[in-house]
Amino acid sequence: MERWKSFLIEAYERSTALRERLDAENINPHELETIEQLSRIPVLKKEQLPLLQKHELPFGNMITTRSNELARIFMSPGPIYDPQGKEEDDWGFAEALRAAGFTSDDIVQNTFSYHLSPAGFMFDSALRRIGATVVPAGPGNRELQVQLMNDLQVTGYVGTPSFLYLLLQYADEKGIHVTVKKAFFTAEKLTESMREQFEQRGIHVFEGYGTADCGCIAFEDHQGPGLKISSRAIVQLCDPISGVPLDEEGEIVVTIFDRTYPLVRFGTGDVSRWVDGYKGERIVGVLGRVGTSVKVKGMFVHEQQLKQVMVEVGCPLFQAVVTNEGGHDQLTIYIEKELNEEAKQKIKNVIRVTPTFVSVDRVNDGERCLIDQRKW
To answer: Which region holds residue 366: left if phi is over 0, alpha if psi is between -120 and 50, else beta?
Structure first.
């Protein structure tokens, strides 16, 4: 209680945007005495960030320092600019990796991207914090990835479960022995089928939940069911319209103890529910999305951004559908005209996901442009 109140007061004094939010509601942070009273603050939706940042580049007056005093600046789809402060393990994933058994004895292959999006550095800094040796492999190039695993005797993996599955398949095909014994997954759902296959190979797997804005929010620790809430976060499950906390399924609304980027009552757009008997402590994982954004292969695809680029390439009528066959996310864009390779590359560059394009006689323009058909 003392910790979050002192954090909120300091954030109010140093963040112009937060001060304006609270002043608009006549909320004095000095008068808030309980976590429940935090709910008086309106939810800041993730979908609002691109507009807020565009109005006051680059961070919408939300950070508590100057841009040139940050360690790094990233750009996520939206576009959304994400700041990195100069604290060690700025996104807080070291706690989750320790719970997953990663130590200073490990050589860990980090397959998240180090380009523009923060995921690569999120885990790089967390692994360095616990003293592990990092192989900054990034995504793609399975042949080289498997060679690295074998040559360096890699013991740990960080990335998506589907990519590790592909790497292990390739290693089996080539008769290459893989020494990975532990893996930490995020950005993509870990199915029970995949979990069983990894465990059968002697790989202990853990998963976590976080966002580019917030960093680590919850993680698996095998000390209880579901995902444990990070010590750096207050999580509420709220009605996505009113922002009122619920005892049932609701939008994940987060307050993060981050002095540089104090996100208070931030609506992630993800949906979850409390593990029975662990309200406020453990969530079951991500059950879906609210709003108009969909996470595909660990990257958010924003409907409005997709609409804009499709208009720019001369294809305003389209329908994008997300599926998950065999544990692999797939984005298929149905269009009424053929697109050249330059246009396809432009779309990929904007949404940061490689889609499959399918030509059809007619697109049903009466439905949403971006549809998630995955069944969790």
So the answer is: alpha
Residues in a beta bridge with 234: 255
Residue 124, both tokens: 């790089």
At 310-332, the pLDDT tens digits run: 999 999 999 999 998 877 889 99
96-141: pLDDT as tens digits: 999 999 999 999 999 999 999 999 999 999 999 999 999 999 999 9
Domain that holds residue 14: 2-67+232-289
107, 304, 337 from 364: Cα distances, Å: 50, 18, 14
271 and 319 share one domain: no
Cα distance between residue 270 and residue 251, in whole Å:
6
| Residue the block writes with tokens 């402060």 | 85
Q: In this structure, which amino acid lies at residue 248?
A: E
Using an 8 Å Cβ cutoff, are 261 and 268 in contact? no
Spell out a b/e string for 33-46, using b for 16 or more CB atoms within 10 Å of the CB, else e: eeeeebbebebbbb
Confidence (pLDDT) at 376: 55
Smallest CA-to-CA distance from 338 within 362, 357, 311, 310 is with 357
- 107-110 and 156-159: which strand pairing? parallel
Q: Annotate 256-271 with b (16+ C-beta within 10 A) or e (fewer).
A: bbbbbbbbbbbbbbbb
pTM, two decimal places:
0.85
Asked whether residue 76 is assigned to any structural domain, the reply reads: no
Is the CB of residue 183 less than 8 Å from the CB of residue 158?
Answer: yes
- The predicted-structure confidence for 244-273, as pLDDT tens digits, reads as follows 999 988 999 999 999 999 999 999 999 999
Any idea what DSSP says for residue 65?
S
Residue 368 has what pLDDT?
Answer: 79
Q: Answer yes or no: is 368 within a domain.
A: yes
pLDDT < 50 positions in the chain: none
Looking up residue 11, the CATH number of its domain turns out to be 3.40.50.12780
How far apart CA 67 and CA 320 sit, in angstroms, is 36
